[in-house]
Write a structure and sequence with these properties.
By secondary structure, the chain is mostly helical. It has two domains: about 5-35; about 35-100, Up-down Bundle (AhpD-like), CATH 1.20.1290. The protein is built from five helices and no strands. The chain has helices spanning about 10-15, 20-30, 40-55, 55-70, 75-95. Helix 1 (about 10-15) crosses helix 2 (about 20-30), helix 3 packs antiparallel against helix 4 (about 55-70) and helix 3 (about 40-55) crosses helix 5. The termini are far apart.
């Protein structure tokens, strides 16, 4: 199902819901812009979220952007293990719902 070529269909989405899609892109641009948190750290956070949500498009896009923002392989690797810890931690805490 994942194919980076699918992103070319974003134009179709925008043509059918132009105002909402434009608003999304404006929000996305602002959210990822440098602010109190530098772009490199925002991209590393985006990667950790992408690993947790398992979105291959986001992993592809944000790993490239993280490198462009000078994130090292070690920083990206640590984002992977942070995401793994949180995902595994969620299984543990949600597991408490099954306990009597």
């Amino acid at each position: 199902m994942y194919d980076i070529k699918n992103l070319s269909k974003l134009k179709t989405l925008e043509a059918n819901a132009p105002e909402a899609v434009k608003a999304f892109w404006a929000f996305d641009k602002q959210a990822m812009a440098a602010g109190a948190i530098p772009v490199k750290y925002k991209e590393l956070m985006a990667l950790a979220v992408a690993f947790t949500t398992q979105c291959p498009y986001c992993i592809d896009i944000h790993s490239k952007r993280a490198r462009e923002a000078n994130a090292s392989e070690q920083e990206i690797a640590e984002a992977v293990v942070v995401a793994a810890a949180l995902r595994a931690g969620a299984a543990i805490t949600h597991g408490t719902h099954a306990m009597i």
